[in-house]
Amino acid sequence: MNYTASPGAIAIFVCFVISVLFISFYFARKSKSATDYYAAGGSIHWSVNGIAFAGDYLSAASFLGICGLIATFGFDGFLYAIGYLAGWMVALFIVAEPMKRLGKYTFTDALDSKFNSKGIKLMGAISTLLVSMFYLIPQMVGAGTLVTPLLGLPHEAGVIMVGIIVIAIVATAGMASTTYVQFFKGALLITFSLILTFLVLSRGLSTSPDKTDVPYHNLIALKVSSISDTSVKLDDPSYQVMSLIKTKTKSFVKLSKDNVESFWTLNAPKNILEETETITKLADGSMLYNGEPKSSNKFFQVGSISSIDGQKGTANTPVTTGSLNPLTYIAKISNSTIIRWDHAVIKDGGNQVSVYFQNPTSGRDILSPGLDFKVDPAKGATSVDRFNFVSLMLALFLGTASLPHVLIRYYTVPSPSAARKSTLVAITAMAVFYVLTLYMGLGAMTGGVLDLTNVNMAAPLMAKAVGIAIFAMISAIAFSTVLGTVSGLIVAASGAIAHDLMDKFFNMKLTDKKKVYAGKVTAIVVGCIAMVLGILFKNMNVASLVGWAFAVAAAANFPSIVMILFWKKTTATGVICSIVVGLVASCVIILFSQDTYSSVYNLVGVKAPFAFSNPALVGVPLSFIVLIIVSLFTQKSSDLKAVSGVAS
Amino acid sequence: MSHGPATQWKENKTLDKKKARLGVVMFVIYTVIYAGFILINVFDNPVMRISVGDLNVAIVYGFGLIILALVLAIIYNQICTNAEKLTEVSGKR
After folding, report:
1. Residue A19 lies in a domain
2. How far is residue A298's CA from residue A319's CA, in Å, rounded to a whole number?
3. For residue A181, what is the domain's CATH number?
4. CA atoms within 13 A on the CB side of A535
5. Could you give the ipTM of this predicted complex?
6. Which residue is closest to A385 within chain B, CA to CA?
7. pTM for the whole structure
């Protein structure tokens, strides 16, 4: 699909950036001390902090990724929303108040508060940096991916633009400016998601949806008069049959009309050819979209309903529901048949053809688990599939409260009770948002708006079909989601280097002024590294990287946090070993998993040491066990240290 | 060492322990229900497709987890805030 930049989106985005930079320079004048820089002076009101939590946490993965997954796989995309929100229960009930009580500026501060251990300072900082990098790369890549369709600039330009703006935000006023940028972004994101959902419900469902941007493409079917093993005959003489290509599960027919070649799926039971979309890579490396160059704009948007309540619609007599409420919308989807799209790659002479073909799916299947995650053995799920699913849900549940860039937000409020209240505000905002993603995703799935080459664009394209003004706002907000999250990540990474390593581990005895200076310089360096990584990892599967960040955080950080709070026998050595084992186990499993072998190293057909891909179900228990065993074996030395500490 | 908090507030260790205990209870309640959702998906997936009015178990359970999160969070915060106010009042007497 070709995208043209929306002048409205550019204008709104420029206004947002100017506002954000104004906020940063305003707070820069007030941010003098280390407390101001790393913790916004500890003076942020809990209501502001709560929305800032939402602005920090609801990254492009939440807004664009989840809506895109729901638009493609229905309920399985919503599972991510459920998992992401469930993680905040851990944050509220277990972590919020103690984290505020124990630490000063960073997650490592809280871990080390009872021990004063160099090992904890070092490992806490390394864990923070590793998790932050795993999280930072997909955000920067996402910035580049978004900027092309939304602002009409190349990938690298998006990465550099985000990098420079975020460096300006963090290097000027650190946590203070970051807090208000995240607050601003969080408030806008939730407000406009509410508006978009209201518009989706007001439009209702239709087999031929109204779109304000480009007309809805009604799918064509060609009648077949006869089928043989090697060819078909069509009723329509304007098409010339070129060849019949069979795969394991499908038969495709290549046709030519007016010198344009197209591929169609043979539906033998109904004696029709169904329209597909194709991207053909020619032998000379050039690409054709539906048989023509990209500039011809023939690659159409998809996502439609073929029948509602058993009634089939046609181009001339569509079936519509009128406006619906949240419950009747789901009920109507459940009683509909929706045209989803599957993908196959076929060879046509010297050309490679990616074929996107129709897969009519009942609404009941879309609103049930199983279209993406294989968990039902009756439908071919293996024990590895089920292991991966449970491991992912565990990573989301335990990982949220272990993400350093989330935890440091607790230091910006004045007291533990304010930390708790801000978490409640965050949960409320995010609960509302995650419910809205279901409607935005289903609206995109059925609204004829999906770009098969970029599922992350489901929500902005849904907005575009509804109205150009809301598209401009949603586009600018989508881009801004990256700014808010990346700012938080850079503050966390900057704190790990300047505060945990330089000031605490290397004991550089920095004055307050020098601590702020060190924080600003490291923010610039980390920001530059993030820009380079965002360009280098351009073609990486970024959804995996976010999942890995959660899994590594859950294994490396969660056991230490919980055991320090609830088990008096926890020792410094136990914490250090737990973090090391959690980090190493998670990274080894990820690097040597079947998924990484196939999709990252391109070692197709090579058996990897680990069949499963998500390490949480192994890493978390292992990290807990190591902490307990090592702590029990190092009790005497910590007793001795406690006694000698009292004696001196 | 200077890991300690950057801001000051009135500490009450007895109250902190009570809040922590309540937090653990709430956490266990939610975890059991969340674990139930995952285990039903994995071990008895067809249950998720059973109709519940115009919806199904998957949608009702999924929405239920989100609503439950909000309800438990509000209850927890209310109990803690009331306890803090009571402690403040009895501290002033």
Report:
1. no
2. 26
3. 1.20.1730.10
4. 14
5. 0.91
6. B42
7. 0.90
